[in-house]
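pinging the channel bc i need a second pair of eyes. not urgent but kinda urgent?? the chain im working w is below, pasted from the shared doc
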Amino acid sequence: MQINIDFMSIHIREVRNNADRKAFVALPFRLYKGNPYWVPPLKSGELKMLMPEHNPAFEFCDAAFWLAEKNGKVVGRIGAIINHLSNQKMDERMGRFTRFESVDDEEVVDALMETAETWIRAKKMAGVHGPLGFSNLDHQGVLVEGFDEIPSMASEYHHEYYHRHLERLGYQKEEDWLEFRITLPEVIPDKVKRVSEIVKQRNGFQVINFKTKQEIMAYSDKVFAIFNQAFDKLFSTFHFNDKMSKFILDKFMPILNPKYVKLVLTREGDVGGFVISAPSLSKALQKANGKLFPFGFIHLQKAINNPVEADLLLTGILPEYLNQGLLALLISELYQSYIDNGVKWIETTGMQESNHVAIQGWKSWDHVQHKRKRCYKKPIPY
């Protein structure tokens, strides 16, 4: 179903070709120009996410995207997604709005949201929620706290008026993600070291450290198997198939420094959990301004090789090991590697407010909860 509609002075047109996709991706670069906190994504990666030939999520998702124009100028954008795997898992009929960006204009916002809701309603969905992406490793949540903080590369930044418009239109909170900034000590406390040794000896755990990306690749299938189990009950998640796993791996592997990826083997030799972290690329991405060439890759490589800050991207623990100290062991081992290499601060990505086990793990360290993202929902009976 293609939608091209005029709302008073706003013209909504569906994204249908490469020129439209480029305009869709380019809009935030104009909306946040000069903003010291926004972190530009790489345009090439954003374009691929919109293209079925590159993004395997289109095999189990329906999706459409639109641009809003006023006086011949693009002033807003939005997408809509039906993730059938997520709906099957949750036994619900929900559509997602995604990648919403707009000028601060009620007429523009209303036209964009009505367009997405109309498309979702036509798919016989009972409600809409978002912002959510194709998966929980895609764009999700709108910023509601922390507008004077730089996000991690895997998080979001939005103008403060975004969430106010959503609430004006009747959207209500469904889920929040909290983000923390952790200040690392100069040395790991002796108490933490002793506890880590006790955990290893009592449970027969072995920490795996890496020197090369090839070594990490050897464990990739097991990592995604744990990911599917560890995230099974969390909001907006679903099991990744092999194509999705490879897509995510290809996206994140280039930015990893093997020193900051840790696995734990159980007494039986199985992988019981992992933590994937990476040097912070936020400031490097600001310098790159959406492009790898001619100089963007230089800024990124410097950040990867000589970090002062880091991002905690993903942690997964098999459910049967949650109460055996495995998370604390992984974190202490990771922090030791960062301290050894001069890293001072770590930014977590969003952790669900209801995920008390994960949140408690960071509260043992010097931390501040400084950002909050929100997913909103609204019924749309058809």
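so The chain is about 35% helix and 25% strand. and The first strand starts at residue 5 and ends at 7. — does that match what u expected or am i reading it wrong
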